[in-house]
Amino acid sequence: MSTETVLQHKWPVLGRHERAAEWLQVWTDLGRAPRTIDAYARGLAEYLAMCDRTGVDPLTANRAHIAVYVRELTSRPSHRGANVISIDSGSGLANATIQQRLVPVRLYYDYLMEEGLRESNPSAGAATRRAGAGAGTSADWSRE
User: Fold this and answer.
1) Whole-angstrom Cα distance, residue 42 to residue 60?
2) How many CB atoms lie within 10 A of CB 53?
3) Of the N and C termini of the chain, which has fewer Cβ atoms inside 10 Å?
4) Which of 21, 135, 12 is nearest to 76 (CA)?
5) φ, ψ at 110 (rounded to 5°)
């Protein structure tokens, strides 16, 4: 069973987006570690699932769509549960996890640009940071 088939079984949304499967196969063919491919697949699958839920075609998505995804990540409930109190108990995923989810999205759009399917990368410059007691987002949207 190919890596592509395994990943599509784990994240069916990848099977609905031909270019996503191609992109992951390129990384596999380049010899990236299986855990790296798995992390890229997870991050991209979460983004593509958001696109499917909101009716956005990933090939035509813009920065506003990326911002919706970032907002979703920053407001996602903590895996530790609502009753666990810790120093960083603000809502949303940890900043490092958010960055891990955004990297494959950025690399996927870089691939689409290289293939001539997009003129720009809507995720370029997207950044997140923790703000005080809660999660906030900021982005450098000055580049197009």
Assistant:
1) 21
2) 10
3) N
4) 135
5) -60, -45
Spatial separation of the C-alpha atoms in residues 118 and 122, rounded to whole Å = 10
Encode the chain (144 residues) as per-residue pLDDT tens digits. Answer: 566 666 768 889 999 999 999 999 999 999 999 999 999 999 999 999 999 999 999 999 999 999 999 999 988 776 655 554 554 545 678 888 889 999 999 999 999 999 999 999 999 876 554 443 344 444 443 333
Residue 104 CB neighbours (<10 A) = 25
User: For residue 49, what are the CA distances in angstroms to 52, 57, 72, 118?
Assistant: 5, 11, 12, 20
Long-range contact set of residues 64-71: C-beta below 8 Å, sequence gap at least 24: 65/122, 66/105, 66/122, 66/123, 66/126, 67/126, 67/137, 67/139, 69/105, 70/98, 70/102, 70/126, 70/128, 70/137, 70/139, 71/137
The per-residue b/e assignment along 12-38, b for 16 or more CB within 10 angstroms, e otherwise, is ebbeebeebbebbeebbeeebeeeebb
